[in-house]
Amino acid sequence: MAKFVLYSDEDLQRQHRELFEKSIDFPIEPVLPPKVTAAEFEWAIKEWRKNLGVANVITGSSLFNFIDPFEMMEIDKKSIPSAAICPGSVEELREALKVANQKAIPLWTCSRGKNLGYGGPAPRMRGSVVLSLHRMNKIIEVNEKYAYAVVEPGVTFFDLYNHCRSNNLKLWPSVPSLGWGSVLGNTVDRGFGYTPLGDHHQHMCGLEVMFANGDLLRTGQYAISHGKTAHLCKYSFGPSTEGLFLQSNLGIVTKLGLWLYPQPQTFISCTVDMDDPEDIEAIVDVLGELRRRDILQNNPVIRNIIAWSSMQGRREDVWDGEGPIPQSILKKLQKKMDLGYWMVRFGLYGPKDVVEKRLDVVKSVMSQQAPTARLRSYLFEGDDGGLVDATKIPTPLGGGQVGVPDMWTLPAVQYRCPKAAGLGAHTDFSPILPASGKVVLEWFLVAKKIIEAEGFDAYCGGHLHARHMVLINMILFDKSNANQRAAVQTIFQNLVRESKKRGFSKYRSHINDMDAVADMYDFNNHAYRRFIEGLKDSLDPNGILSPGKQGIWPKRYRVEQQTKLKL
Ligand code: ADP
Fold first, then answer.
1. Can you tell me which atom of ligand 1 is nearest the CA of 111?
2. Taking the alpha carbons of 489, 187, 412, 108 in that order, is the dihedral positive or negative?
3. Domain with residues 10-132, CATH architecture
4. Atom of ligand 1 nearest to the CA of 188
5. What is the pTM of this model?
6. Mean pLDDT over residues 202-226, rounded?
7. Which of 104, 363, 456, 537 has the most CB atoms around it within 10 Å of its CB?
């Protein structure tokens, strides 16, 4: 059988293959979907092969493309799929769903499957069939005047960026830290990027969604046949439904309208450095206030020295002793790299006189409220009064902030591996906190203590929004090292316990933690979950779409899953 290819770009395909194939330290044994007999499964595979083509129904060893490359569970619990199917159109998707419905076969939807740290393409329920939509990869429209795009699930951030560039469109799409994921998958999973429109799901406008029975819905103004404002206005006539398809198993999103940022005349890249762990308090308070007042236009990204150095090389280059890197070594590193313990990046966008004025305000507020902060700014402008060219801005100052996708943070995953050995992996703990310096500092110190107690470094990176902050503790580890795996589990359990005590929930979670996180949303005897379960039962009576996604189980599995949880 022909080799499975996820990317037509050879370099991306190589990187994909290396990451997924090398992570296989266990045999991919054939598994059946839960509550499905071997004969029923065999029938379904035959039908899918007929409908989608043999090459688009994946079984056997090629399933390594659909596992979680960072999975830590024991072999018999790993989230291995029973097969993967790859429809190439809405019609093929409808046919694929028909087959799944007939035998109640659970499907796990993904687009490019690059949800790394959260499970990648792997299903929540072992034995589900991965429904990979990467072949549905058309850019349907990019509208320069109104600055939006309409894309299918398989369109990557690189695809959209290259399309804008090769057509000389004066638009900057927002991109996350790695460009190989899908625009649609990232948006519906509430992922983010770095331009002023970086909070992607807040800027989607007009979705097309297929339900389990093959029916097709369009949301908002997109619901009007031949409407003229499908992707311009989020209003619907009546309740809004778009949010029902975020982090959701109620439907499969087949088209996404997403607003893009108009290429500005000037971009000022700003960096702020502060030297001590406690300085996060001032950073959050000052920049949070500037963000609420709309002086800052994108969400500042705040990283500590551990986060930064993990992108530059391996830990053993900095420290090969036991335990976390000592403070004295970090201080030396800060000096050598000319960085603070904390470093912040944000940008200012627009006409030159406007952005310069914004910068004046930032300087004045910071000099009063964070006098020890080192603010640096770098202005880039277009030639002859034209628009600024994102490609002329060096990556560390521009990159994601000016909508240019790349892959340069991928090697960070090897941070804890010895040179030329080990299996790099990461898991993230990412609570949503109020944008309060005091609360963020307190949480950071709690998390740091928990992480360092297990001999790990307190990697911290966060996105500061106007009223909240998502603070990401990324735990980089060597998956082939049993001690590290155990330590990561301990860290995770302790972080969950402490965040629960304080009423903080996570913005996104690994498939294995979805039930635990969902359980925190418990007001009025889990009214939220009961509401969504009601919708699930009516929209997907056979329970075929992504069972267990975000802790929502179809009736077919609900009782046994909830019993398991209580044990
Ligand atoms: P990316 O490649 O951008 O990281 P993924 O394909 O891994 O995105 O998708 C991220 C998550 O979003 C998936 O785990 C899945 O739960 C959800 N998802 C992806 N594509 C769709 C879709 N077309 N419809 C509904 N949910 C989706």
1. 6
2. positive
3. 2-Layer Sandwich (3.30)
4. 12
5. 0.95
6. 98
7. 456
